[in-house]
Amino acid sequence: MKKPSAILWGLLLLFSPAAQAADLGGFDDIDAIMEDNALTDVTNRYSSALLSFFPEQATRIGFESANELLDKRDGARDAQAARAYNIVEESLQAVNRKNLSEPKKTDYDTLTGLLAIGKWDLERNRTATDPLLYTQAFDGVYDLTLKTMNVPSLQDPDLAARWQALPEVARQSQNNLTAPSPTLAQLAMEDAYYAYLSLDQVTQYLMRRAEDDVSRAQLRTEAKASKEAVRQMFEQFKQLSSQNRQQDFRLGEEDYFFVLKNRYFIEEKPRSVQKLLSKNLDSARQALQQALEAFALPALSADETVLDSMQVPGEENAEGVTVTPLSADMDENTGELPAKEPEMPSPAQQSGQENAAPSLAAVFYALTQHMAQPVKEQAFLAELEKEAAGLTDFFVQEKVLPAGEMSFSIYRLPQYYAYTRPYLFLPPFGTQTNPTHDFFLRLPDGNELTRQEMRNRDFNRPTQKLMVAGQLVPGLFYRSAYNYAGLSPFRKMYSVPTLRNGWEVYAQHLAAEYSYISSDEERLYLAWADYVRAAAAVTDFKLQTGQFTYMQAYDFLTGELGFEQEEAQNMLKQIIRRPGEAVSYIYGYKALADLRAKYQKKQGKNFSLSDFHAKVMSLGDIPPGRLEDEMEYAYGLEKNRLKQALNSSFYMN
Q1: Cα–Cα distance measured from residue 394 to residue 232, given in angstroms and rounded to the nearest whole number
Q2: CA-CA distance, 601 to 22, in Å (whole number)?
Q3: Is the dihedral of CA 514, 519, 523, 529 positive or negative?
Q4: CA–CA separation, 538 and 580 (whole Å)
Q5: What is the mean pLDDT of residues 256-265?
Q6: pLDDT in tens, 133-152
């Protein structure tokens, strides 16, 4: 166990005024300097609270002293954490925001949101109601398999300690979950299922690094206990998912907009948000229609659909463990699967239009299936690294991106994550001494038929180009690697996801603007990606605010918009897990696109896209409402430096 005093000293050094001096940008107002230092003290207190009560989160923001612990999940922990948050909040309220420097005003707002959402999360009594709180422990284990930490010699023991703690997490879930939502229990059941299938990888990793037979024997005993704990959690969540309870997984309008405001910093009124999302869906629908018009469409009758139901990976090797996807017939309040409940009629059936024209989604599915060509086996990791490097050179030469030292490391995605996603970009864990910007890719696996299906789905050229543009260059990888060194410790650790999510969309459109995404087929896939994002955002809003039941949301996606059943179910799972995130993509992209349009108009021929991107990337993941003020501050600093340089003796002579 590391000593708490070492933790506190590390915090004091990390957030000392010297470490934060770069944030001031030469600001010489003593009131601002003093207030900035006061905010730094508050941030230290917040970090201490996370280290004390939420070690899994502390790991992800770079505090390795917490790496051997998993969160303790019970009411006593929640009460203590709430008191700590209240103390931090009182200290924050004593800081005069008006006296802060411009960057620190942004940090103040971010910390205000973090505290609000943290307190709200505790007040929801998730230890008793949310099974997903317990499956987060699986992520806590696998976090330590993804990154090489600052102290590699401690990483294996830390991983083993978290792995060995899974039986305790199982006991906590058994003791605490007294009123769980059946819908959330079913999602947690799936998490436990995938963790069960993947746990042997952790065991094998630790066994290979064991020093002797005694250590290996001990590991086998611990592995058996950990795997049994995960199985018990699966069985518990399976039982809870079938109970007829009245817990509604939906947040409701008040809590939903609290999340939008404090987690994603979207502060518009409900009517304005709904209007923007509806307008965005209409625009995405029109863009998809236009993209489809470039093709000679195959014949498709009104009642024809293109379905491709995939078996859950590894299900046949699950030793009797089975998992069921969320049902379209699930009761919106109880989550129970009715024995026989009629499906809600689609809008076309309600209006008697049984022979309505096929939806745009159905046409897209049929067209892409018609055009599909088998993808050959290749060294995908090496090829993508090469492509990303070449794309970087292209965008720098075209003066779209600022130049910078950039190397790309792409790795195979671990099995636990590969069950549910095709790739994962992971920026450095907070303030890593040796920061790594890692991109993990799901590679084809299984028998030859399965491998070919995965190659065709994940590595067809349009899908691959969208992934490269959004995730690598000019996407999240480039943005992270370019801006990391210049960010303050606060912004490395405490980020707002809205601009990050928006940058992924912005990067794809930037790639299309400069013809990396260029063919009709590639532009069609981009229009489809926008359509999916737009549909998910509207569904997120209407489901979580109570305008849709689960069944109505499912019917909206499959009936009105024409999504395939599996895609609709997966979209709904993400919406239930992370309320508001789908909306953040729309607002993040809009904030970036609007800001660029403003500066292009304002600066005219003097506008430099490369310089604009450099400044935007240097700000980090800040609240979108602070983006314009921060950019004005950045341009102002640059102007002042140039003025000082021109007035220096070097230029006078």
Answers
A1: 53
A2: 30
A3: negative
A4: 10
A5: 98
A6: 999 999 999 988 888 777 77
Write out the H or E segment, with its range, that includes residue 425: strand 423-426
Please give the backbone phi and psi of residue 440, each rounded to the nearest 5 degrees, phi first: -110, 135
For the purposes of burial, counting CB atoms within 10 Å of the CB of 570, is it exposed (0-12), middle (13-18) or buried (19 or more)? middle
What distances in angstroms separate CA 91 from CA 41, 45, 123, 409, 489, one per listed residue?
A: 9, 9, 20, 42, 20
Opening angle at CA 508, ends 578 and 469, nearest 5: 95
Two structure tokens written together for 516? 């990396």
Question: Is there a cis peptide before residue 474, judged by omega within 30 degrees of 0?
Answer: yes
The whole-angstrom separation of Cα 467 and Cα 499 is: 18
Residue pair 103/88 in contact (Cβ under 8 Å)? The answer is no
Identify the residue whose tokens are 């014949």.
299
Closest CA to 626 of 37, 26, 101, 45: 101
Question: What amino acid occupies position 118?
Answer: G
3-state DSSP assignment of residue 338: coil
Residue 424 forms beta bridges with which residues?
Answer: 440
Phi, psi of 370 (to 5 degrees): -65, -40
Q: Residues 607, 599: contact at Cβ < 8 Å?
A: yes
Burial of 649 (0-12, 13-18, 19+ CB in 10 A): exposed
* Arithmetic mean of pLDDT, 118-142: 95
**CA triple 387-389-395, angle to 5 deg:** 100
Q: Which residue has the tokens 């506190």?
A: 8
Q: Rounded mean pLDDT of the chain? A: 86
Q: What are phi and psi of 347, to 5 degrees?
A: -55, -35
Please classify residue 201 by burial: count the beta carbons closer than 10 Å to its beta carbon, then call 0-12 exposed, 13-18 middle and 19+ buried: middle
Nearest to 242 by CA among 338, 307, 173: 338
Q: Tokens 């086996």: give the residue.
A: 377
Residue with tokens 């050959």: 376
Do 15 and 47 form a contact (C-beta atoms < 8 A)? yes
- Could you tell me if 544 and 536 are in contact, meaning their C-beta atoms sit under 8 angstroms apart? no
pLDDT of residue 297: 67
Phi, psi of 313 (to 5 degrees): -55, 135
Q: Which tokens belong to 174? A: 């058994």
Helix/strand/coil for 440: strand
In what side-by-side order are the strands of the sheet with 423-426? 410-412, 438-441, 423-426
Q: What percent of the chain has pLDDT over 90?
A: 70
Question: 435-484 pLDDT, tens per residue?
Answer: 889 999 999 999 999 999 999 999 999 999 999 999 999 999 999 999 89
C-alpha 333/C-alpha 328 separation (Å) is: 13
String of DSSP letters for 399-434:
TSS--------EEEPPHHHHTT-SEEEE---SS-SS
Q: What's the CA gap between 302 and 248, in Å, rounded?
A: 35
Torsion of CA 381, 386, 392, 398, to 10 degrees: -140
Measured CA to CA, the distance from residue 277 to residue 32 in angstroms comes to: 39
Contact call for residues 410 and 439 (beta carbons, < 8 A)? yes
Residue type for 200, please? D
- Report the C-alpha gap between 12 and 544 in whole angstroms: 40
CA dist 1 and 291 (Å) reads 59
Q: Residue 348 in contact with residue 277, Cβ under 8 Å?
A: no
Q: Are 496 and 262 in contact (CB under 8 A)?
A: no
CA-closest candidate to residue 486, choices 397, 649, 331, 615: 615
- Both tokens of 28, joined, read 């010489």
Instruction: Find, among 58, 220, 56, the residue nearest to 141 by Cα.
Output: 56
Token pair recorded at residue 546: 């109570």
Instruction: For residue 152, say if its preceding peptide bond is cis, omega within 30 degrees of 0.
Output: no
**Rounded distance, CA 616 to CA 39, Å?**
24
Beta bridge partners of 410: 439
